[in-house]
What we know:
Number of helices: 0
Strand order of the largest sheet: 1-3-2
Strand content: 25-35%
Amino acid sequence: RERASIAVVQETKINSRSNLLSRAGFNVIRKDRKLDNFGGLSIILYNTVQYILLSIATSTARILPLNVKV
């Protein structure tokens, strides 16, 4: 049985009340869409995956830039 270490999900439509945030053994990085009725982005990483969340210089981009150490 294979297990993913990293999953990227689009059109998530989750928010701060979603139980996706409390999964033991995983880090969840989210970019929710608050101004419209469309879904956001989530990156779910196994807790042993080392990463750095990068910042971008725009407020309109709907991306989650991430540097993952492999």
